[in-house]
Design a protein that fits this description.
Elements: E1 3-7, H1 13-23, E2 27-32, H2 36-44, E3 49-53, H3 59-73, E4 78-81, H4 99-127, E5 130-137, H5 148-167, E6 173-180, E7 183-184, H6 188-195, E8 208-209, H7 211-224, E9 229-232
Parallel strand pairs: 1-2, 1-4, 2-3, 4-5, 5-6, 6-9, 7-8
Helix pairs in contact: 1-7, 3-4, 4-5
């Protein structure tokens, strides 16, 4: 059985992806700070899932959890890095962006993906197969001053993923970036925004997208493997 490891598993994108891949025969490694209940929910649906506790912004924990997953489940065939910051780390404006406001976004969307890649890619290249998927959002592509610090990190991540994808061409390893332009239903961020609507600038209406649709789109991305960047949920 092939293994999908979701780093930064949440109730939105993580759950939707795990459900879709799990129903297509994948074993799921649920990786995050509170993975036990998440994995139990998947098992209740008949999906083979195992929990692994880790903070994916901690370099030592990233390396440790990769080892624990592979020891228990075997090689990781697909790694999805879907960790994201909540609304509490946003900047007020681009002018307000400073070094402290960049620390968590950079740790989540630049350092952590690089650590994960370095931990998994050599073995994938040696096997001649494997998939590395990373998630992004709207603030890298569209001007959103209240998320400027996150946008800076996403821009750096995009540059890294695009370069990485080019360099692994011909190795059998697929690298992709999945950009989501809507608020994910059932996600932790949705819960925070619904409870604190003042976190979003007045007059701004955030479109929403279901996690089942995201799981299906990621499955298509994985099976077709014909493009590095896929966007979903962006306004036409």
């Amino acid at each position: 059985m092939s293994t999908l490891a979701i780093f930064g598993y949440g109730p939105g994108l993580g759950a939707g992806t795990a459900q879709h891949f799990g129903r297509n025969g994948f074993r799921i490694a649920v990786i995050g700070r509170e993975p036990v209940e998440r994995a139990a929910a998947l098992r209740a649906e008949g999906i083979d899932a195992e929990p692994f506790v880790a903070d994916v912004t901690d370099p030592a924990q990233v390396l440790d959890v990769v080892g624990r997953v592979e020891e228990k489940l075997g090689p990781i065939d697909i790694a999805l890095h879907s960790a994201a910051a909540d609304m509490s780390v946003r900047s007020a404006t681009t002018i307000d962006v400073d070094l402290p406001s960049l620390e968590l976004p950079i740790a989540l969307k630049v350092y952590s993906p690089i650590l994960l890649t370095r931990a998994l890619l050599p073995a994938m290249i040696a096997r001649g197969s494997g998939t590395l998927l990373f998630t992004s959002g709207a603030s890298e592509e569209f001007l959103q001053p209240y998320l400027a610090n996150v946008g800076v990190a996403l821009g750096a991540q995009r540059a890294y993923v695009r370069q990485l994808a080019r360099e692994v061409e011909g190795t059998g390893v697929y690298v992709g970036l999945f950009a989501i332009g809507s608020l994910i239903e059932n996600s932790a961020v949705q819960s925070v925004i619904d409870a604190n609507p003042d976190l979003v600038p007045a007059g701004l209406v955030l479109p929403r997208i279901g996690n089942a649709e995201l799981g299906a789109r990621l499955w298509r991305m994985y099976t077709e493997r014909d493009t590095v960047e896929v966007e979903v949920g962006f306004a036409a």
